[in-house]
Amino acid sequence: MDSIIAWFNDFKADFILNFVDQQRWKFITTGLKNTLVITLLSLILGVFLGIIIAIVRSSYDKTYDEMRGGVKKFLFSLANGICRLYLTVIRGTPVVVQLMIMYYIIFASSRNSLMVAVIAFGINSGAYVAEIVRSGIMSIDAGQFEAGRSLGFDYKSTMIYIVLPQAFKNVLPALANEFIVLLKETSVAGYVTIRDLTMGGNIIRAATYSAFLPLIAVALIYLVLVIFFSKLVNILERRLRRSER
Amino acid sequence: MAVLEVNNLKKSFDRTEVLKDISFSLEKGEVLSIIGSSGSGKTTLLRCLNFLERAEKGTIAVNGKEIFNGENLKKTPESVIRENRLHFGLVFQSFNLFPQYTVLQNITLAPTLLKRGTPEEIEEKAKSLIARVGLTEKTDFYPCQLSGGQQQRVAIARALALTPDVLCFDEPTSALDPELTGEVLKVIRDLKNGDCTMIVVTHEMEFAKSVSDKIMFMADGVIEEMGTPEEVFGNPKSEKTRAFLNSSLEQF
Ligand SMILES: Nc1ncnc2c1ncn2[C@@H]1O[C@H](COP(=O)(O)OP(=O)(O)OP(=O)(O)O)[C@@H](O)[C@H]1O
Ligand SMILES: [Mg+2]
Question: Do A146 and B92 touch (CB under 8 A)?
Answer without folding.
Answer: yes
